[in-house]
Amino acid sequence: MNVGDKIPDVLGVDQNGNEIKAADFRGRKLVLYSYPKANTSGCTAEACSLQQHKADLEAAGYAIVGVSKDKTELQKKFADANGLTFPLIADTDTSLLQTLGCWGEKVACGRRTVGILRTTYLVNEEGIITKIFTPKEIKTKIHAEQILDFIGK
Known about the structure:
It is a single chain. The longest helix has 12 residues, at about 40-50. About 30% of the residues lie in helices and about 30% in strands. The protein is an alpha/beta fold and about 150 residues long. The two termini are about 25 Å apart. It has one domain (about 10-150): Glutaredoxin. The strands form three sheets. A five-stranded mixed β-sheet has the order 5-4-3-8-9. The chain is built from five helices and nine strands; from the N terminus they run βββααβαβαββββα. The chain has helices at about 40-50, 55-60, 70-80, 95-100, 145-150; strands at about 10-15, 20, 30-35, 60-70, 90, 105-110, 110-115, 120-125, 130-135.
């Protein structure tokens, strides 16, 4: 997906078994971010950055939703262990990740693999993508600050 595209209507099921839809966020903006694996250092740093600045993001009109290939049970443990109070979608079949365009080939330590490309989509009140933070732009420990700087808060 690209800036100007509308996110899918059905996003998936979160760590609590709730179906998450784009319509749930109509009238609000959304930080929709993909992360490779729950309970890894980078993904934990990113999630905790977003949680730490959740009130600031909400004050700017944004809700937060994370998505990874992890199963619902692992998403729940990840959320509970880190005090995350936003939905984490368990996209085990990678359908949402593929639709968003954050599933693909990546290189780590000289090794090529296929998996989740850490990406963040800022979505407006109508479900339209307004900004995409690419994997090379995202600094996991300060990602919420990057978003807040971009939106001018």
